[in-house]
Amino acid sequence: MPILQPIVNLAELLARKGITDVVVSPGSRSAPLTLAVARHPQLRVRVMADERSAGFVALGMAQQTKRPVAVICTSGSAVYNLAPAVAEAFFQQIPLLLLTADRPHEWLHQLDGQTMDQVGVYGPQVKRSYDLPADYHHPDSRWFMERTVQEAITLTQLQPAGPVHVNVPLREPFYPNADEPFQYEPVRLITTLTAQPSLSAETWHELLDEWERSERILIAVGQLPRDPALLTVLGKISNELGVPIVGEIISNLPVNDHFITHTDTFLSGIGAKTADALRPDLLITLGNSFLTRNLKTFFRQYPARRHWHLQPTVDRITDSFQSLTTLIPADPLAFLEKLFADLDYQRFLQGDDDDETNEYLNQWQSINRRAARLVEQTLSQPNQPLTDWSAVQLVLEQLPERSILHLANSMPVRYANLCGLSEQQHISVAANRGVSGIDGCLSTAVGAALATDQIVTLLIGDVAFFYDRNAFWSAPVPANLRVILLNNDSGHIFRMIDGPGKQPELETYFETPHGYTARNTASDAHVAYQACDSLASLQSLLPDFFQPSDQAKLLELSTDKIQNQSQFATYKSKVKQIPKQL
């Protein structure tokens, strides 16, 4: 047996446990791991030279496929460069398997190169950390390695999903000789069965009684992948039970007649009387983080009297609105489908009138319509210049149906949230709102495009783009990727918020003007490039831009930060004019 045969066998374990995609960053210490996955016929291996990009590319792939993606890197500081993606994956609950090569531990603090303490390096940002043995001669070591890797793969997927770290110390020699056999041996699989938590009949009836005692019920949806079945049951609960369904673009709630999606506009500076009228008796929340401060502030300042939160596990108490009364361990879709079915049947038995007035729902929908009109008026002024916001609206309107939209952090995700997407488009929305950094937004979209044949469109600002342009380093960039770059030559968000926007140091210490364009970056990466500086030009370019092609495309929009600021200031002044009373 070759001395590194157990490492070769790890690749077989990955494939047998359902992993199909691996992202590798080149390195010498990690060579045995790299060769093992690269030569395996059932593994698709993507090479990313920059570990920071590699981690986010893997995240984007796993975000799209809902399956764990393995990441391999060499020892030393390379391991730390995965950390931003690891943190995002942890808080966004994305399954990643991190395989970090290491020197044997006896060489730590011995002035040897590319050596640091890697055991537990990601701290609490991973679900668990494992450390494999550096010597495999004893059968127990090989048994331990195979058991540990299977446990790690399983753990990435158990709810809540997330990243798991396996540190792999490796001794030389790393490379097999030409005449040395290289084959994958049979591995023993360990299957871990899962079960959904269930509520007792007594508990279920207590929840139904609490629902019945509540006059004003509201459901708020945090960040979730698009799920047509969930959208269907939420629509039924709203239409037939008179319950407002509140969410944002990252909740994948479309703009329609019943969902409440313009809260960032109408909850800004809301009057106390109106706020109290909108306050629910029972608030039900599901999903991950919420995007906008106005929505979070409203629910904290005007807390519900009772608050249920739905999540598959109870490993942590999620109480982001400081009002939680009941944590319900349940899959949100299954819970809401059963809840609606039971309530609908109960209404049938009681002979409730389907046409009864839903005053509470009407209040939310009425003020939501006002906010939508205000946004529309802001963006429909005559002789409108090309601004970041007007560009976002036009891009969202022109997106191909059933495509995927990635929203970079800072202003793009906020502009998109103010506009929304229509129900008829069937767009799936993703964004790195776990820890909400600008690092990795481009890489994540690249990863998503690698994992699907659908068009993947990324809306990204200039600082986030240039910060992460190593996502384009390892060719080829997937041909189904479309990048809309909003280049205002600054960290635009700092001009929009009151704190830094009023400081004399704004441009030097917050906005970071740079003078760059993406033309050379696109050329280096063999990405089709176009530039645009007017709404009319953008309107004419978008239809062809979204057409299928044999190469990725980047459309760079040059906007003026002063015009962007002026438009947003006009919008905020109009927000203040929204009637404070219902």
From TrEMBL:
<keyword id="KW-0474">Menaquinone biosynthesis</keyword>
<comment type="pathway">
    <text>Quinol/quinone metabolism; menaquinone biosynthesis.</text>
</comment>
<dbReference type="InterPro" id="IPR012001">
    <property type="entry name" value="Thiamin_PyroP_enz_TPP-bd_dom"/>
</dbReference>
<keyword id="KW-0479">Metal-binding</keyword>
<keyword id="KW-0786">Thiamine pyrophosphate</keyword>
<feature type="domain" description="Menaquinone biosynthesis protein MenD middle">
    <location>
        <begin position="202"/>
        <end position="402"/>
    </location>
</feature>
<dbReference type="InterPro" id="IPR032264">
    <property type="entry name" value="MenD_middle"/>
</dbReference>
<dbReference type="InterPro" id="IPR029035">
    <property type="entry name" value="DHS-like_NAD/FAD-binding_dom"/>
</dbReference>
<comment type="pathway">
    <text>Quinol/quinone metabolism; 1,4-dihydroxy-2-naphthoate biosynthesis; 1,4-dihydroxy-2-naphthoate from chorismate: step 2/7.</text>
</comment>
<comment type="function">
    <text>Catalyzes the thiamine diphosphate-dependent decarboxylation of 2-oxoglutarate and the subsequent addition of the resulting succinic semialdehyde-thiamine pyrophosphate anion to isochorismate to yield 2-succinyl-5-enolpyruvyl-6-hydroxy-3-cyclohexene-1-carboxylate (SEPHCHC).</text>
</comment>
<dbReference type="Pfam" id="PF16582">
    <property type="entry name" value="TPP_enzyme_M_2"/>
</dbReference>
<comment type="similarity">
    <text>Belongs to the TPP enzyme family. MenD subfamily.</text>
</comment>
<protein>
    <recommendedName>
        <fullName>2-succinyl-5-enolpyruvyl-6-hydroxy-3-cyclohexene-1-carboxylate synthase</fullName>
        <ecNumber>2.2.1.9</ecNumber>
    </recommendedName>
</protein>
<feature type="domain" description="Thiamine pyrophosphate enzyme N-terminal TPP-binding">
    <location>
        <begin position="10"/>
        <end position="119"/>
    </location>
</feature>
<keyword id="KW-0460">Magnesium</keyword>
<keyword id="KW-0464">Manganese</keyword>
<dbReference type="GO" id="GO:0070204">
    <property type="term" value="F:2-succinyl-5-enolpyruvyl-6-hydroxy-3-cyclohexene-1-carboxylic-acid synthase activity"/>
</dbReference>
<dbReference type="InterPro" id="IPR004433">
    <property type="entry name" value="MenaQ_synth_MenD"/>
</dbReference>
<dbReference type="InterPro" id="IPR029061">
    <property type="entry name" value="THDP-binding"/>
</dbReference>
<comment type="subunit">
    <text>Homodimer.</text>
</comment>
<dbReference type="Pfam" id="PF02776">
    <property type="entry name" value="TPP_enzyme_N"/>
</dbReference>
<keyword id="KW-0808">Transferase</keyword>
